[in-house]
Write a structure and sequence with these properties.
Elements lengths: L3 H12 L8 H14 L12 H8 L3 H13 L3 E4 L3 E4 L6 E4 L6 H7 L4 E11 L3 H7 L7 E10 L2 E11 L13 H7 L6 E10 L2 H7 L6 E10 L5 E10 L3 E4 L9
Parallel strand pairs: 3-10
Antiparallel strand pairs: 1-2, 4-5, 5-6, 6-9, 7-8, 8-9
Length: 257
């Protein structure tokens, strides 16, 4: 086991790496997740206290607390009453918070996993009635239709069928593994979304790609993502393996009606 001071130094070096981007709390979480994935931190390794790590990184305790919360929600660490925060058994399932709008690639990298993407279809076309309705466009408006098999650490997890108006991403050949990054580079990063989740049996064709039995439980997610001005920029119909993905939401007591 690594002592707290040495571990804080290792985390500080990882956080300040040029490869790390984004908010500081997420960089801390990503750095620790990668160390766990690389087996640099064994199961039951105790992490530095919020105060110790905050002092080592010269950040506020709230920043470290948010990083630990993200690691807990991802299943990388666990808190033990009166003992501290420890590296947990590596989960076989992936836990995805419902309150954060991010791409599949971003989600996997934040967990220290290696995202993968296999393009099943990429074509400029006219939308189907479902796609047109989801995007709020006419049937004569061209779209990019992008179907991909998404994986983490080589394991197939989901099939994503995305539709994006050509107005926002006309050079479709330049789309890389992250659709959101491609949109962001063009100034069209979605800022909010509405998605609906439902349990469905996996159809035969999807089951082959996901390496599961036809009829196995799967999670269907239909999402419409929008720009700050309300325009729909993405309509995605996804199918996730039911045995590999959990979606979680934090609920708070609201004001009475």
């Amino acid at each position: 086991m690594t002592d707290s001071n040495s571990l804080s130094i290792s985390i500080r070096a990882a956080v300040t790496s040029p490869e790390q981007t984004g908010p500081i709390y997420r960089r801390i979480a990503q750095s620790i997740a990668k160390m766990i994935t690389a087996s640099e931190l064994p199961v039951n390794q105790v992490l530095p206290t919020e105060r110790d790590l905050a002092e080592a990184l010269n950040v506020g305790r709230v920043t470290v607390r948010n990083a630990y919360k993200e690691l807990i929600s991802s299943g990388f660490v666990e808190q033990r009453q009166g003992s501290g925060t420890f590296v947990a058994e590596r989960p076989g399932r992936i836990t995805q918070p419902l309150w954060r709008l991010s791409s599949f690639s971003e989600d996997m990298r934040s967990r220290g996993r290696v995202p993968g993407s296999r393009v099943l279809q990429k074509v400029m076309a006219y939308p189907s009635p479902e796609e047109a309705f989801g995007l709020g466009i006419g049937l004569d408006t061209r779209i990019l239709r992008l179907h991909r098999l998404r994986s983490a650490d080589g394991k197939p997890l989901a099939i994503e069928r995305a539709a994006v108006p050509a107005t926002y991403i006309d050079e479709f050949q330049l789309v890389d593994d992250s659709l959101y990054r491609s949109l962001e580079l063009r100034g069209f990063r979605p800022v909010h979304a509405l998605q609906r989740l439902s349990s469905v049996p996996a159809d035969a064709a999807s089951a082959v790609w996901l390496e599961i039995e036809a009829g196995s439980p799967a999670l269907q997610i239909i999402r419409t993502s929008r720009l700050a001005d309300g325009r729909a920029v993405e309509y995605t119909h996804s199918l996730y393996r039911g045995d590999a993905y959990d979606f979680v939401a934090e609920l708070k007591n609201g004001a009475p009606f």
